[in-house]
Amino acid sequence: MAKPPVPPTATEEEVRVILERYRCPVLFHEVRTRCLGNIATPVSAASPIKIVEDLWGGKLPAFDSIDAANELIGALVMGLWNRLTRHQDRNSPFRLMRIETAATREGLAALALMRVQEIEGFVHGLFGRQEEIDLPERAHRALDDLGKMRAMFAAVQDVANDETKAAPLKEIETTLRHMRGMTKNAEHAMHTVVLFCKRARKQMLAGVPASKPTMH
């Protein structure tokens, strides 16, 4: 009997290249969290293909061939998506993107924006096209915490971009240290949502209705 073909895989760098080739409007760091949120979601109609389509506004980009389409789907679903499913394990928490951040106004603003987009991506993936979903109580509280952290990152971005406000080097360095702690807290909240949603799906527990947060 012939061996079944090995599913296509792609490294994160290869996924980045494919996203850029097809001019994906969603940046890679947000693509990761959208996929993670959709992996966690209790929405029964959710699927990897739908979240991939949503990256381009609900419809896949045009392809020159079937092979090209298979390459993109393979990279995003069989590669990136499947790797992210391991974060449903309690001992394999998800990590947000790490970047070299200069202690400058611009560096601070760039990092804060990335964190805002990552949190928004997770919420987008979790809710999909729904405005309200049922979540376990612990996941519900963690989602509320994420909303508060998103607001704090956005506030940092606003201050960093406001050139009328002073931004001494020492204050920027202090804020960057605080943001490292906030980043770990955001990762913990995301992991909590993922774990408790997985448990709820397994045990079919009654959830607590959660409304999609307003992203100001």
How would you describe this protein?
- With 216 residues, this protein is mainly α.
- It has a single domain, classed as Four Helix Bundle (Hemerythrin (Met), subunit A).
- The chain has seven helices and two strands, in the order H-H-H-H-H-E-H-H-E.
- It has a two-stranded antiparallel sheet.
- Helix 5 packs antiparallel against helix 6.
- It starts with 11 loop residues before the first helix and ends in a 5-residue tail after the last strand.
- The model is unreliable at 1-7 (pLDDT under 50).
Poorly predicted segments: 1-7
How much of the residues is beta strand, in percent? under 5%
State the helical fraction: 55-70%
How would you characterize the largest beta sheet? 2 strands, antiparallel
Oligomer status: single chain
